[in-house]
Write a structure and sequence with these properties.
Number of domains: 2
Oligomer: single chain
Helix content: 25-40%
Strand content: under 5%
Structural class: mainly alpha
């Protein structure tokens, strides 16, 4: 049986296709969905009914709020443009 050393965290479906069943099969991590391996999970959606990938945890961002900078995770291109424009209009840029 091969031992896997992937260069990034694997999604569960990919791990299963490779024959990875437990920690004895790889040096690395497996997450239920690919987006969970990214930093996108640290910020809340702009609204509870915003588009989100299957498996999105609406409560995780609230639990992490004191450990991350303010921001949103957005999965709708139109909404991301509107949010970005709103953020820039409220931004303060200071030069030293």
């Amino acid at each position: 049986m091969p031992y896997f050393v992937p260069d990034e965290t694997l999604a569960a479906g990919e791990a299963a296709r490779l024959g990875i069943h437990d920690e004895d099969d790889l040096f690395g991590g497996v997450v239920p969905e690919a987006f969970v391996a990214s930093k996108v999970i640290t910020h809340p959606l702009p609204a509870r009914d915003s588009a989100a990938p299957r498996g999105w945890n609406h409560d995780l961002a609230a639990d992490l709020a004191t450990a991350v900078l303010p921001g949103f995770s957005v999965f709708d291109p139109g909404k991301s443009r509107r949010l970005a424009k709103g953020c820039w209009s409220r931004a303060t840029i200071r030069c030293a």
